[in-house]
């Protein structure tokens, strides 16, 4: 930086460079631990904590810190999607993630339930029951807006300053943002990067112009119609699942495997259950292009693994091929924060980046589960360590999660592949069973995919390493077992637990057939 | 339509308000005519007279806290389904009562008021008389409860 030649002298000290200009002292070294930037009148940083990102992780940390007496500001900004969708405070989960997803999943489940109801004596014509997209969309958006509002009120009550602007680093201690009223520069003792991620678009013609993502589906003006979902991770499956349940023709295009990060046997069962419900799958296919036809439909061309070309028309094409962290937009180089890998995520140690006073939580983190409760928990614990003198650190192991496909898949702990890899087949015992939910009999719902398995150590205390469950209410079923795993659940303990009857969760207490035995895991009958 | 009895005022700017503050009879003037023109679909009835529109905090102070009449303040949000049921109901029930006014506050545009009155959920209704909050309820309630609230305010006014 250029400083007028008069009135300065330059001193070199080990560890940092110091340039003294009149009364101003500028200390410039990003690796210097107790970095202090003083201004002409010797100001301390304006805030104790500035949080970049008003989502699950950011808000949890901000509110906790403020409660502990820190002066906190949160910057949140949503760049509109290519088709112009934007949303309010709360982050991905509240606006375009967990919350609207669960509501639409519920809408689809209710559609199924209506059909089952007739078997239970309810007098109605299931054929006449249709879903109105506009009503569903309105109900979902109303709920989201109410959550946006409550979030803002909460921030206000907890005295956290909310700035609706995109923050970028000017240097390790300064963030700059442009807002409606002008510009703001914020200095802080600590920063937390919690900017999350956004869906990726593939690099094919027509993707950005004609495709949408999960950012758009929950507020889509026109009804989705016949939809192609490109991507078979949990987002793709969940979207295809509820769209199918609402009555739309849904197809999933899979590049390699379904639910790549999950237990593959369970992934296959989920795929089969979705196919049974009418979702079509295109395996090992890659989209080549999207064109708009004169009647406004979309012509999609794709190739399969053998190089054969196909095409079909759809009303909507939804890309769910992965998410990228929004780190590039922060100008992290100005702060000295390093990113790793193609995804440009941040590698942290107890949420601390390579710059000691800059931290990160949530989806921006490298190799950590991208889940709301993980971000919230990590954010809270971090705030307590920074301002409350606490020492508890976040445990990222054994985090339970659920895929809200039409028939849900809940799991906690290791997948079978990882367990076998880590311990070897001789050290692992896998108990498994197919089961029949009582409620499915009357409407004759398919029980072919109601399956669970318990992965445990074969020797010693037979510690349970992982639990996997496919069936209704999988999230509710697995949650309690996540606590059990935290308490070092063992197979004997599980087997000696008396089940609640009739439930689906009790099937975990009834496990007795191992994969090793080769016996048929299908149930003979209930209750014995 | 040149003269109306009003118990409340539709304010579009505060200078107009200060003019009309002490005026019992509303004389037509461009701003008022303009606002009436906007609500022409309601025609020449008194239905619009009871509803106070709040433009800013000063407005609120003048028209609610410093009002001669007791005022029922309805915190409303567009995305709130119960509000869409309660607000019209409130309008309908306060309509015939000349002593009690109704102010509708959109929570999205009045964060300060929301904070001041500790509104945590909508719909929220507070009853203000002589600058004091005398009653409050949250959530959708039946017509009986609203009527009780109105008559409570009305009765006190008459004594």
From TrEMBL, chain A:
GO BP: any one term: cellular response to oxidative stress
Note on how the cofactor is bound: Binds 1 FAD per subunit.
Taxonomic path: Eukaryota, Metazoa, Ecdysozoa, Arthropoda, Hexapoda
Cofactors named for this entry: FAD
Domain FAD/NAD(P)-binding, residue spans: 47-379
Active site: 501 (proton acceptor)
Localisation per UniProt entry: Mitochondrion
Residues noted as binding FAD in the record, renumbered to the chain: 102, 167, 363
Species name: Ignelater luminosus (Cucubano)
Role of this protein: Thioredoxin system is a major player in glutathione metabolism, due to the demonstrated absence of a glutathione reductase. Functionally interacts with the Sod/Cat reactive oxidation species (ROS) defense system and thereby has a role in preadult development and life span. Lack of a glutathione reductase suggests antioxidant defense in Drosophila, and probably in related insects, differs fundamentally from that in other organisms.
Descriptive protein name: thioredoxin-disulfide reductase (NADPH)
PANTHER family registered for this protein in UniProt: GLUTATHIONE REDUCTASE, THIOREDOXIN-DISULFIDE REDUCTASE
InterPro entries reported for this sequence: FAD/NAD-bd_sf, FAD/NAD-binding_dom, FAD/NAD-linked_Rdtase_dimer_sf, GSHR/TRXR-like, Pyr_nuc-diS_OxRdtase, Pyr_nucl-diS_OxRdtase_dimer, Pyr_OxRdtase_I_AS, Thioredoxin/glutathione_Rdtase
UniProtKB/TrEMBL annotation, chain B:
GO CC annotation terms, alphabetical: mitochondrion
A Pfam family assignment: Thioredoxin
Residues covered by the Thioredoxin domain: 33-158
BP GO terms, sorted: cell redox homeostasis
Superkingdom of origin organism: Eukaryota
Family, per entry: Belongs to the thioredoxin family.
Protein name: Thioredoxin domain-containing protein
Organism from which the protein derives: Ignelater luminosus
Organism lineage string: Eukaryota, Metazoa, Ecdysozoa, Arthropoda, Hexapoda
